[in-house]
Design a protein that fits this description.
By secondary structure, the protein is mainly alpha-helical. The protein has 4 helices and 2 strands, in the order H-E-H-H-E-H. The chain has one domain. The protein is 44% helix and 10% strand. It has a two-stranded parallel sheet.
Length: 104
């Protein structure tokens, strides 16, 4: 309901690691799209260790997250992104993709 109050759309972040989670979100919001940040487990581990002092997510959780992940590759309305690219490049790619989808 809250999403429908914003006719121009909203951007939300969540892990939605399992297909069942994404399917449930899609059921409630059929126009929903996902930007999937692909990253190697070793790079994710490196990043988590580097920010350990300032973030709640510890390195021990990375293995669990990757074990739980069911890749959305092949699912409808999923944009695959290389998470090692600079943030501004990722933002541009997502914005262009969302804009092109809204024109279709």
């Amino acid at each position: 309901e809250e999403i429908r109050k914003h006719p121009n759309g909203v951007v939300l972040t969540c892990s939605a690691l399992k297909k069942a989670y994404r399917d449930r979100l899609r059921e409630s919001t059929p126009e929903l799209r996902f930007a999937f940040l692909e990253i190697a487990k070793s790079e994710a581990q490196r990043r988590v260790v580097a920010r350990a002092a300032s973030h709640f997510f510890n390195a021990a959780l990375v293995d669990n997250q990757f074990a739980t992940l069911e890749s959305p590759v092949g699912e409808p309305d999923v944009l695959r992104l290389d998470a090692t690219e600079p943030l501004d490049a990722l933002q541009t790619q997502v914005s262009q993709w969302l804009h092109s989808k809204s024109l279709a």
